[in-house]
């Protein structure tokens, strides 16, 4: 462990990685020199592409270019979120025993990838960037998640990290990472209550955090909307132009996935332009049956198209205030992070809600979360620095956790917004005389009936010594660590018999065997990519060498043609010169290879 612990913001649309180095955070550039990387993976006949290379070729290869994979993790195939998004994605999502998998053609063969595997490829890329930057191996990371991520989603992130060769030092929420970054950089002026709104491409995540002083940041409440993000604005704009195209040209563009991809890219760009201009132009030549589509979008139309979505941003803000029992007048600071908070209308609505309060958005919203994660990684891996002494955060459980009692009723043991890590117990007993086994079903959620909550798993305490009903004392303990991972223990107080249970949701979770296979595959893909890259480099170098030689030779030939009557010394000098040039090119070529 030690110094090479990185902080990763694994985003739905963009990801970013940072590290604590020379007493400050460095955001690590990728191989394009960019400080954040599109969360895109593409497969083609010859190669696998990650980041910019994948995003840039999407309209040429729409079926095999994957984005938004984070929206699938920890979910069942029939989850409404999965079903809804499937209609918009150009890539194919299939049902594999109830779990969503992404089906692509890679190297000419049909292949299925689990969303966890796709995320592991992104993590691997970020890890690679860090290793190249540091010239050292990296194996540990703090990774950020949405604060309302449930147990299945957290487990999925852990599996993805595992496949990428990273062990997780801690999972922290995006808003808390942002708060840490603002705090470290002295960008929060007062002790008091802070509302942090993280509004990205896939989701909205709001936290109310109290800056207690002495460097302690305590989460008071979290809320969010897993179905609201910048991508949803893009969809509205795309639909608007699909209709416009139908009206203008009497043609349905949706039948052509490639055209749709080009439209989607143009719409996202227009949306971003509208954050700084009142109007954006869209010009896509021969988009469909060689029709050139030239049109425009104004900020007012954009706002109209998305009015209801924009309004929804206030709901989780109200919820955290309600849950924390704090009035909005007692909020000292409102911090905005995430790309979608660049939209002026969003800023306006939040500021109005807080009675015209000035919003704090002084940190680069694309980097702030990775920045905070890197600080946390340094703190947890024991880096010594006066600056880090001042940072401590206390997190909360995002959902209530409990077990089912008679009649299918949820019996919560840990409550939503309870501070974590925590360990809580309750005593249960048998319903029947001489009952020898006791089934413990673990649920997550806020509803009264367990059918409405999320079943995390179940286990059985067996061999209970026969006794009349109500006599055995079974103590069930829920232990939740700082990353939000749950462990359940059962203990028969009468017999001293123990049973430990790590919650694994078999419905959603990959098996150990599947993970092992994916680790092997990851290594294979990694070395294949490296070979392709090396081959490409060798080819480029050789091409440049040939070009330089050709150039030198051509120049000499031209001289020769023009100087048919030169002196002996001149010919010899020219010959010498050419030989030296070829030799020095050759030398350079050898040094570079
Ligand atoms: P995530 O963490 O979900 O990957 P980010 O915080 O990186 O998301 O934000 C990405 C989202 O922000 C995308 O939907 C992108 O279109 C949007 N976005 C980025 N810049 C702007 C801008 N200038 N105006 C409006 N939206 C923007
Ligand atoms: Mg984000």
TrEMBL record:
Residues of the signal peptide: none
Name recorded for this polypeptide: 5427_t:CDS:1
Transmembrane segments: none
Family note: Belongs to the heat shock protein 70 family.
GO molecular function: ATP binding; ATP-dependent protein folding chaperone
PANTHER family per the UniProt record, alphabetical: HEAT SHOCK PROTEIN 70KDA
Source organism: Acaulospora morrowiae
Keyword set, alphabetical order: ATP-binding, Nucleotide-binding
InterPro entries linked to this entry: ATPase_NBD (IPR043129), Heat_shock_70_CS (IPR018181), HSP70_peptide-bd_sf (IPR029047), Hsp_70_fam (IPR013126)
Record carries keyword Metal-binding: no
Pfam families recorded: HSP70 (PF00012)
């Amino acid at each position: 462990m030690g110094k090479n612990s990185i902080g990763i913001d694994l985003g739905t649309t963009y990801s970013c990685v940072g590290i604590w180095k020379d007493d400050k955070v460095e955001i690590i550039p990728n191989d394009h020199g960019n400080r954040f990387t599109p969360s895109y993976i593409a497969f083609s006949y010859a190669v696998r592409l990650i980041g910019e290379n994948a995003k840039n070729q999407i309209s040429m290869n729409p079926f095999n270019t994957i984005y938004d994979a984070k929206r699938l993790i920890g979910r069942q195939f029939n989850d409404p979120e999965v079903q809804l998004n499937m209609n918009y994605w150009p890539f194919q999502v299939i049902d594999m025993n109830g779990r969503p998998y992404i089906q692509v053609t890679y190297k000419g063969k049909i292949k299925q990838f689990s969303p966890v595997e796709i995320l592991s490829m992104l993590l691997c890329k970020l890890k690679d960037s860090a290793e190249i930057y540091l010239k050292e191996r990296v194996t540990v990371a703090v990774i950020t998640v949405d604060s309302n991520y449930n147990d299945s989603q957290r487990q999925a992130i852990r599996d993805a990290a595992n496949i990428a060769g990273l062990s997780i030092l801690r999972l922290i929420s995006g808003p808390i990472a942002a708060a840490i970054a603002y705090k470290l950089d002295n960008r929060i002026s007062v002790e008091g209550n802070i509302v942090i709104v993280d509004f990205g491409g896939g989701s909205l995540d709001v936290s109310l955090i109290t800056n207690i002083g002495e460097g302690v940041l305590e989460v008071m409440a979290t809320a969010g909307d897993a179905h609201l993000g910048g991508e949803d604005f893009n969809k509205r704009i795309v639909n608007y132009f699909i209709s416009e195209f139908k009206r203008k040209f009497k043609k349905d563009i949706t039948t052509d996935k490639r055209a749709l991809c080009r439209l989607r890219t143009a719409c996202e760009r227009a949306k971003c332009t509208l954050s700084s201009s009142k109007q954006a132009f869209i010009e896509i030549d021969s988009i469909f049956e060689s029709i050139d589509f030239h049109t425009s979008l104004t900020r007012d139309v954009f706002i109209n198209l998305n009015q209801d979505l924009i309004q929804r941003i206030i709901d989780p803000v109200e919820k955290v205030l309600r849950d924390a029992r704090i009035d909005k007048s007692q909020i000292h600071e409102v911090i905005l992070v995430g790309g979608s908070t660049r939209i002026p209308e969003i800023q306006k609505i939040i500021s109005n809600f807080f009675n015209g309060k000035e919003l704090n958005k002084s940190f680069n919203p694309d980097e702030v979360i990775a920045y905070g994660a890197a600080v946390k990684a340094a703190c947890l891996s024991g880096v010594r620095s006066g600056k880090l002494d001042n940072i401590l955060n206390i997190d909360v459980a995002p959902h209530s956790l409990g077990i089912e009692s008679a009649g299918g009723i949820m019996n919560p043991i840990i409550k939503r917004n309870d501070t974590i890590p925590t360990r809580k117990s309750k005593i249960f007993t048998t319903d029947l005389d001489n009952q020898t086994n006791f089934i413990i079903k673990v649920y997550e959620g806020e509803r009264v009936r367990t059918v409405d909550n999320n079943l995390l798993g179940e286990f059985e305490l067996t061999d209970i010594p026969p006794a009349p009903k109500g006599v055995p004392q079974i103590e069930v303990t829920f232990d939740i660590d700082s990353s939000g991972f749950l462990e359940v223990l059962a203990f028969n107080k009468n017999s001293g018999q123990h049973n430990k249970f790590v919650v694994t949701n078999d419905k959603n979770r990959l098996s150990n065997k599947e993970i092992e296979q994916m680790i092997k595959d990851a290594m294979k893909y990694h070395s294949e990519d490296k070979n392709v890259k090396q081959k490409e480099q060798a080819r480029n170098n050789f091409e440049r060498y040939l070009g330089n030689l050709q150039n030198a030779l051509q120049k000499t030939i031209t001289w020769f043609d023009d100087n048919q009557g030169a002196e002996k010394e001149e010919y010899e000098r020219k010959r010498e010169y050419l030989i030296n040039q070829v030799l020095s090119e050759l030398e350079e070529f050898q040094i570079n290879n």
